[in-house]
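Box 4.2: Ligand-aware structure prediction
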Amino acid sequence: MALPIAHSAVAFGIIRSRDRLVLAGAVFLSILPDLDFILVWGFGLPIQVYHRTFSHSILFSLALALLWRSFCPFRLRTLSFMPVLLILLSHGAIDMLCTSDAADHGVMLFWPASSYRAGVPVLVPVYLLVANSPFSPEGALRFLFLESFMAWPLWRFTRIVREGLLAMAARHWDSKAAVQLKE
Ligand SMILES: [Zn+2]
């Protein structure tokens, strides 16, 4: 299970703003899907049904990104629809890399159409080096310690992917413009 440092590092890789309020908004959005723990820990609802289900789905991310665009306060509007959507989707992506048992704890990306839980546990061995679980004070501290070392590589990797995608989009747009010019 990834903790806020890993999620925030990826969010900071997605956006370029240095506005503290915007950065705080990005951190909030990056961990927002895990507020489903309120239902589990606060209301005693079953973790299998309410964690990493609706709140980690593509549909939920889309709906929330649209709501954010419509209702967020003025300075936070610099976080536009696409970065907000990518930050929310990145949460599920990181969780997928950290799920020890995809069948039980994977991410329901396609909720409500499918209850399939997706997981690609490539980061699990790294987390297991420091602790078996974050659900104890010592385990949480160990995970946070590990993630403080993972933060820069995660941020850098996200930034490289972001720049690559932007370059591809620019090339695609340019080629379209060239076709239009030729026409
Ligand atoms: Zn999560």
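In the box above, the bound molecule is zinc ion. The pocket of zinc ion is lined by residues 33-34, 52, 56, 91, 95 (CB under 6 Å).
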